Structure prediction request, 233 residues.
Amino acid sequence: MERTESPLIAVAVCLAALAGFVDALAFTSLGGFFASFMSGNSTRLGVGLGQGIGGDATMAAGLILSFVGGVIVSSVLVRAASERHKAAVMAVVTVLLTLAAIVASISPGPFVLVLLAAAMGTENGVFNRDGEVTIGLTYMTGSLVRIGQKLAGALMGDRDRWGWVPYLALWLGFLAGAVSGAASQLRWGWNALWLAALIAAALTIAIARLTGWRGYVSADIRPRPSPGSDVDG
Prediction:
């Protein structure tokens, strides 16, 4: 986050909100599984195996594999599209969310969640440098850790007293998206997925325009005078 220009930080917050929206839809629609929170699904997998609940274990394992598959797809796109990878990755996310909305309209069920997990895995490739994710968009544990670290640094007199703010914004974006997703599911059910697909399409267009401007092509790799800053994970 420290190396990311302000316009792309705003995009990252919007993408985190999209992840929260999708995750809440998945969680509230079908048995308490997650589309983006793979630690939660890993716990569901372990509990299912430990208690002999085969259906839960199978569902959790399928979502984890689908998420990893999305990460693989985005990693391939990052190498193939190079500096234009952000828009390419988001285009795939939009397609996957649209497919999920179509399937949910015809036959809502576990396959919708599989598509959502693939979309969320793919989304994590938007901010990528040298094959490594620089901003985790669909899981907030790393952001909360960074908030604590940056606040501790500020309390101890570090020069960067406000470095925790972008991470807080990312977490708040995810939370706001989750609130909106839960409320939308309560009102529209699976049809709320069309809103997620529409938001993803709008973000794809915004990212394409931003990364097409001179000076923002590799804006998430802005050098800093201080060495060795960590990334969110």
User: Anything to note?
Assistant: The CA atoms of residues 128 and 134 lie 5 Å apart.
